[in-house]
Design a protein that fits this description.
416 residues, alpha+beta, Jelly Rolls, nine-stranded antiparallel beta sheet
Length: 416
């Protein structure tokens, strides 16, 4: 079996998106009808490996695989994917997460924590306010004075506002920061961690005595002072449970800290709420066992909650690998070897980077799955897993069939 060629042939990159190389789409316009869409391009170019890079390139330029384009647009599209242009893709990792970073400010009193503000724009805040008024909140445990809506996995990519909340507070770059803090304070990895995001309403009568969040690795509260309640932030306490100071409270600000093995993180809330204290709560758990351990008692309420939380693990909690996808989203030994042999600057156009399926809309993911005739069941994350597996299989098939002396046999698996 011959290896697929490298990117550079006589110093000319013929496929900037990577993988085994095949010919580009024909520029012979006479072979196309007047109604050109992605499906028609595939029908005309039957011998080309129609990889996901090319699908996403098409989505990049035209928004959808179903978009009908002109012959002039077709030539521009072919020129785009057959060149090494300095092109910043809105579907690349760098551009997708560029505007989603939170500016954390470190504070060591009374214990290590971080504060932040201006996470969302004014328009996003208005959308979140509407969201609070439309979702079905439930009382948390026995307390009627605290009601929560737990973000569901099925909300992601279906509800624009919820998707934006998840991407802002739990994106791959922020999780990288959280991982450093967690490892430093708890010597624990969140590689296989679980992420819980809740929208919270606290009503008059709510209080929370001095405590330490021992069943999670990270606690974040992002406050949304829609009712102008004033200064009702969380109280930070010293190791003897004495009050030291309040966290910031207002519209679009908050705090975050990690559970620590080396110092206490006592905090409480004993202030008076006049109308409602709105917030977004974000917690990271090491694993399923840590998430459930506070419900290991065998009383009636503990058993009920354990069943409820087992269901939440299936339907609501996000995995670190889903929220922090790998840069190399296909697991092919030759491709990885190739990438290691060449420097990053040579191997990739820096601005373009790798495919980021996670930055696509649910509709675009569905279009790619439909185009490839794959199983379309499951939530957004299940569909991404399906795409990654298919891409791996396509790559392996391409490697087996590539013969630079007989390119017409490319992807013809009959003789394998």
């Amino acid at each position: 079996m011959q290896e697929a060629p490298h990117d550079d042939l006589n110093g000319v990159t013929i496929d900037p998106t990577g993988g085994p190389q095949g010919p580009f789409f024909t520029k012979d316009i006479s072979k196309y009808s007047n109604r050109i869409d992605w499906k028609h391009i595939c029908e005309v170019n039957k011998d080309i490996w129609l990889d996901d890079e090319k699908r996403i390139d098409y989505i990049e330029m035209f928004g959808s695989l179903k978009t009908v384009i002109t012959k002039d647009e077709l030539l521009k599209y072919i020129n785009r994917i057959s060149s090494d242009l300095n092109f910043e893709s809105k579907h690349g990792y760098h551009s997708y997460y560029n505007n989603k970073l939170i500016n954390f400010k470190q504070d060591n009193i009374p214990f290590l924590h971080f504060t932040f503000d201006k996470v969302f724009s004014k328009n996003e805040i208005n959308d979140i306010k509407k969201l609070f008024n439309t979702l079905d909140f439930k009382s948390e445990e026995k307390e009627e004075v605290r009601q929560v809506y737990t973000v569901k996995r099925s909300d992601y990519k279906k509800n624009k506002t919820i998707t934006n909340i998840v991407d802002k507070i739990a994106n791959r770059l922020s999780i990288k920061e959280y991982s450093k803090w967690i490892y430093k304070t708890s010597n624990t990895s969140i590689k296989d961690g679980l992420h819980l995001i809740r929208l919270v309403k606290d009503f008059p009568g709510y209080n929370n005595p001095a405590h330490i969040d021992k069943n999670n690795l990270l606690t974040m509260m992002l406050f949304l002072d829609f009712d102008n309640e004033g200064k009702i932030g969380t109280e930070l306490l010293d190791k003897d449970k004495n009050f030291v100071k309040d966290t910031p409270y207002g519209l679009n600000c908050g705090y975050v800290f990690t559970d620590s093995n080396s110092e206490s993180t006592y905090h409480s809330f004993t202030k008076k709420i006049n109308k409602c204290r709105y917030s977004i709560m974000y917690n990271i758990y090491e694993n399923k066992e840590q998430y459930l351990k506070i419900y290991n008692n065998n009383d009636k309420w503990g058993i009920i909650n354990k069943v409820r939380h087992l269901n939440e693990i299936k339907k609501n909690l996000f995995k670190t690998s889903e929220l922090s996808p790998s840069r190399v989203d296909w697991n092919n030994e030759r491709a990885i070897k190739h990438r290691k042999e060449k420097s990053f600057n040579e191997r990739f156009n820096k601005q373009q980077g790798c495919i980021n399926y996670y930055s696509l809309s649910l509709e675009q993911v569905d279009e790619i799955i439909e185009d490839k005739k794959l199983d379309n069941t499951g939530d957004f994350f299940k569909k991404i897993k399906t795409l990654k597996q298919s891409r791996k299989e396509d790559t392996e098939k391409a490697e087996l069939t590539w013969d630079p002396d007989n390119p017409e046999n490319y992807l013809n698996t009959k003789n394998l």
